[in-house]
Amino acid sequence: LQPGVLASHIPPTQQGHSPPPGLNFHKDERTQKQYNKLKKKLEQKQMKGENNILHSTPPLSPRKGHSPPPGLNFHKDERTQKQYNKLKKKLEQKQMKGENNILHSTPPLSPRKDLVNGNRAKTETSEDGEESSIQDEEDDASIAEILANVKSPQVAELSSRSALIKWGPPDDTADLDICESDLRYEVLLSDKGRDGKYKSIYNGEAQSCSLYSDVVLYSTSGSPPSPPPAPTLLEAGTSWLRLGWTRRPSDEDYTLQMDDRESGHGFLAVYNGKETACLAQQLRHYTSYRFRLRASNDEGDSRWSDEVHYKTLPSRPGAPPRPVVKGRIHSKMFKIKWEPPIDRGGTDITCYTLELHSERGWNVIYTGSDTEHVCDRLNPGTTYQVRVCAESPGGRSEFSDPATVTTEPVCPGACNAPRLHGKPRQTSLTLRWHYPEQDGGSPVTELELLVRGAQSPEPAVPSSSPVERIAYKGRDTECTVGDLSPGTAYVFLLRAYNRIGSPKPAVPSSSPVERIAYKGRDTECTVGDLSPGTAYVFLLRAYNRIGHGPWSEPLEVKSGAAPPDTPSPPQVSCIAGGITHVEWVAPPGNGAPVSDYRLDMGGGDTLNIVYQGSSTDCDLKSIPPATVCHFRLQAGNSAGWSPFSETSVITTPPGPPGSLTLRKTSVTTPTSLTVSWSEPANHGSPILHYVLETSDPAQPIITCDTTSYQLTGLSPHTTYKLKCRAVNEVGPGPLSPTLRLATLQLPPSPPKLECSPAPGYNHLKLKWGEGRNSQFTTFTVYMENPRNPNEKHVVYQGTNFSCKVNKLQELTTYRFYITATNDAGQGPYSEAYPFTTCTAPPAPLKGNSAGWSPFSETSVITTPPGPPGSLTLRKTSVTTPTSLTVSWSEPANHGSPILHYVLETSDPAQPSITCDTTSYQLTGLSPHTTYKIQDLKPGTDYAVCVQVHLEEIVGIASEPTLFTTPPCEPDQPNPPKLVTKTRTSLALKWNAAVDNGAHVMHYILESDQGNATGDFKEISKSKNKNFTLSKLTPSTCFRFRLAAVNQHGKSPQFTTFTVYMENPRNPNEKHVVYQGTNFSCKVNKLQELTTYRFYITATNDAGQGPYSEAYPFTTCTAPPAPLKAPKISDIGMRTCTVEWQSARPLGSDPIVYCLQMSRIRDQDYKTVYRGSETRTALSELEGGAEYTVRVCPIRVRPDGDVSGSYSTPATFSTLPLPVEVTASALSTKQTSPSHVNNTGKQLFIWKNLSDQQMAGFIVLGLTTLAVFAAAIMQYCFIH
After folding, report:
1. Where is the composition biased (Acidic residues) (predicted)?
2. Could you say which of 21, 117, 324, 796 has the lowest number of CB atoms within 10 Å?
3. Which residue, 950, 965, 980, sits at the end of a domain?
4. Which residue range is the domain that position 386 belongs to?
């Protein structure tokens, strides 16, 4: 036995000897218990007066053993004191060596050797908790030698299955003052002692044990793991976070939860498994999330770890909306403004970059945080593009859509002096000049030449100088000046005009009173005590300690004025011809002259602008008759507009009826037409009747009281022009637009049928016309059966004028009929034409010649090349129902090599191609004499001819040869259709199948009898194309298929395809989405961005084939629904407001809108707005122009925008701009004399004209000018 040794296998040869060196004796739980027990005894002694022991020495730690054998006494007072003295002595020796701190910083130690599992416990505790040795190597060796002298065990109470083993303590333990209860024994057992293999059967303090069976090991339950450390962030992205943690030995599974505070759902699990990392996806950019981790094993779950916060990275912001112009566009600058992007990437925008596109490309003009910038130093009348991008900590966005801005043009520059062209004449001379070098950003529209010299007899423009006049005004670069005086010097001045005007000299201005308005260090001031509407000049200079600097360039500013007073109500009067004259009195201007008037007219609360200009009267046209009209006036000057005047009310007199529109009806015959119309507006007077004007000479004017009329007695196939107007007591209304209607044509009459002069004995050649069939009339020739006169069959049908009837008998009379068919239908049958075949000649005999004479001498001559010889087509045996092979003999080339042949054909199914006129080339052939024509129809006649092409000559086409493709089995008919059904019967019908040249003998209808096994059985076989099934089982599905049969066989059966779709939620479940014979199908009611798996099988007469492999297809993103047409409001001369309805959102994706605008005459849509608002204002429009706008919703997604369809365009017209004319031109441009101003001032006329109306006036003006020029030329030629 080895006392104090646990689970140590000691060979028998080592029993009774000292243990091997190097054994470590460790302190265990028994040592602590002994220490506590010894300390308790010493405290009891302290109470008896032995206080010096506890205060001078650390308490001792005796071991607590198991129940000792009877008769053993332990823990005696003397022994306790001896142990204490011995330990104290050794500790003092250690202290002498410099280790004084050991006794005061370590817990009390036992002087005995602490034996745990046979090892020596030689430890002590230092100040930082670490263990160190306190025993000598000599003490260890002496203790181990004494403990090794244990006596051999004795066996007692031996039985067949158990034995009692006893032993005693080792000798000399009293010298070491070791209590026997502190000794532990280990018993080793070997089944065969000679083998030297022992196993431990007992370990304890008793001195006896019993041997029993093998020990069974059981373990208590474990415990759940402790809370794991918080997860750490490994990597972060804009929409994902990768977290990781460390695995511990007690951890098996992990649960990671995330808390999104914005969702309000609390902590939700994002990962469950054994991995030590997790990727959290589909997160929002630049958002903080909370995470916590829990570990689990078989014993349970741990508590949650500490919560940690991690934040996703910011993403790149989206593109900003299109920039817009703020304020007015000047000739050299404009202010641009933009909005921040809708998607800012989760952070604030830190910087914007603005780029300007000019002739040099894109250039950066601004970088900063502001949302507006002034673009200056630009060229007048130039188009620029501006775009902007945003920057944030997440990156730089894409550039916005470019905004197009055109600067305002200015007047053109000065022209160079004109030059003389040619020699001057007595009364005229010719000048030339160039356009100015600078046009001011707008093309030069007009040049004006001013002359100073002798008094002109009729000056064109009043001038302060009597010798000045306008010699030329136009767009040419040269002119001839007449009405000059001989020998007189003239001065010519030239200036250019564009749509802005002409250059104007600077107007000098000065102020007789000067004063100092401000003196200080600020950079701005307010100057008071100014007069309204007065021009002032401001000069600025700076001072320093030396003195003041020079004055700056003068600044001319005119002070503002107040708007005019409220004008008086306008005076309104009606003039004959539907014209309303309105005049008014100018109100006081309040510091600025009244420069403009605005006249509104309407039928009540809604009033619209009908006139705007500087005149104090106007004439209004196109006012509806019998209408109550309200008028109000507003005056304006440079300061603004005055309040509206009081309203003037007038009722217009009744007028003629409005226009109407003729409509065509379906009642049309070759001799009659029926038209109808809607009743127009009567304009205050009831309609009496209608007048219908026609182009029929027999009935040019028709009067009726109803809104429809039928014209009879017309010529067939003739086009008539119809117009209609309504008449009331006031007079007739305007004529309606011309309606062109045509009567139907009559079916053609049958032509005269003729037979060739030389009829055959077994055929007849029939002819009924000559030339080209330009009308593509179809002719049908019938032959009467000689045995049954009531039976006729078709021998020819086509567009040719001749045919050949074969397989006839000799000396037999046949009767033929002919009809003609066109778009109007089939004409009547002709009379019977009898033709008789001739007598058949006898068979030819072989020749019986006596012979030929000898040949003469040979003469040689070479003739020039000529046209090739004739060709004759031959049909070969290689013929199929869809192809035929033709061949011909190679003709004589007559001295010129053959290049190729051209094969021509005419197909009866194509009426535009005929045998004698067609040039439809099937193919260009090499010089071979055989060709296969493919893709033909079975059982069809084809006429084919061939033409040879030589090097320089094209041969004559051969005579057309008729070929017939052999018939074959019919095509597969269409599936039968259900006509009617009841609970026990079904009625089916079907269309005729294509017979492919042989008549269909019967149809075979098969059914599966409702068993759904695919086993079809024949249920009908007849020529009929309908069938009724009766005595069927109610609520049963029946499948049918149809086949056509002719003399060549049965039509093939269709292959039935079945498409299955896998259930995304249950992959083992499939359902049919299509079953039929088509090669495509459409699957509806799917979800967006979802992957679906499809399978397909094919079924024919042999049964159903195997399933295909799975084909995954993914649906795309759903676009927004289209919107209704936008609404236009607040229409002005250059502005309007556009509104549209909002689109229904799809998921969490935002919706933006794209508005496009185009001129109606251009039809070139351009984007004018893009954003999330449903209302925008359009500016910088052209006055008096027609525009159309449309809008589409856009679904903004991270993977790309999805655009919906554009709405229906909405059309609107801006208010026209005022037209400036002079008093001299008013006499030719205005019909009312009230507009003529004798003072020569410029007047403004409001023209409410569209682009089409303006184009009409231009054409009318050019026509008038041409007529006037022609009259002048005629007058010159006559005189």
Report:
1. 126-138
2. 21
3. 965
4. 324-406
